Amino acid sequence: MSASSVVAQDRLAPPRHVAIVMDGNGRWAKKRFLPRFFGHKAGVDAVVRTIQACIDRDIEFLTVFAFSSENWKRPSDEVSGLMGLVLAAVSRYLGKLDSMGVRVRVIGDRDSIAEKLRQAWDGAEARTAHNTKLTLNVAFNYGGRWDIVQASRKAIAAGVPAHELTEDKLSEFMALAHAPDPDLFIRTGGEVRISNFLLWQVAYTEFVFSDCLWPEFGAQQLDAAIDAFHGRDRRFGGVKDAPNAA
Ligand code: FPP
């Protein structure tokens, strides 16, 4: 196989890990004169569609930002509506996800969420632990800065000496230690910011920002983002065509 066909094949490989900020639920609902809750409800359907689309494209890891450490600032009825929706979604879709071969993992601060929700996430992880088709990381009560702090605390508690605390060592304590760094980061809803999502893990991730509102997201929008990803020239800080490039 020639060097150029290896490059061509490599360029068309799907991203291994896609991370998504699912924004625009509220605006989707508002456009339809509905309460914001209905936007979140439609957002759950978009999550299920996107999981299937990722499996169909051989994507191995999907990480979705379901509830941020900052989302507690929302009106209390919206927060409780979201919590109820997530509980209902877990009980409604867990069997389906399991039969699709999805392994659910939850990243975020579980200490300050309701006991019922903690049990639901623990149960979802335990039931799907054997699955290998796609790992769905649900970021829940998650913040990128929280993640760096919790990893540092764990490293200290494990007795890692300061001079051994390298980037690789700290990565072992981060919430996504089980996954490669995201290749592709998608944010829907038209805003162009990270909002304290995977700060540590996106150092060399490709970013795609879409005006599509999250409840409208599906296979077509995922393909558009993957096409944009394939058009990028990933150099990881190196130089293209350098004589000593790997
Ligand atoms: C942002 O839209 C969306 C959220 C804060 C919640 C996203 C959560 C879900 C789609 C449910 C996920 C559930 C599972 C089980 C993974 P927004 O409300 O900020 O929208 P706006 O910017 O239009 O107001």
Automatic annotation (TrEMBL):
Top-tier EC class: transferase
Cofactor binding: number and manner: Binds 2 magnesium ions per subunit.
Pfam families according to UniProt: Prenyltransf (PF01255)
Active-site residues annotated for this sequence: D23, N71 (proton acceptor)
Residue numbers binding substrate: 24-28, 36, 40, 68-70, 72, 74, 187, 193-195
Gene3D superfamilies, per the entry: Decaprenyl diphosphate synthase-like
Cofactor: Mg(2+)
Key words of the record: Magnesium, Metal-binding, Transferase
Binding site for Mg(2+): D23, E206
Keyword Metal-binding: yes
One GO molecular-function entry: transferase activity
EC assignment: 2.5.1.-
InterPro entries: UPP_synth-like, UPP_synth-like_CS, UPP_synth-like_sf
Family classification: Belongs to the UPP synthase family.
PANTHER family cross-referenced by the UniProt entry: DEHYDRODOLICHYL DIPHOSPHATE SYNTHASE 2, DEHYDRODOLICHYL DIPHOSPHATE SYNTHASE FAMILY MEMBER
Quaternary assembly: Homodimer.
Biological role stated in the UniProt entry: Catalyzes the condensation of isopentenyl diphosphate (IPP) with allylic pyrophosphates generating different type of terpenoids.
Protein name stated in the entry: Isoprenyl transferase
Organism, as annotated: Pelomonas margarita
Gene: uppS
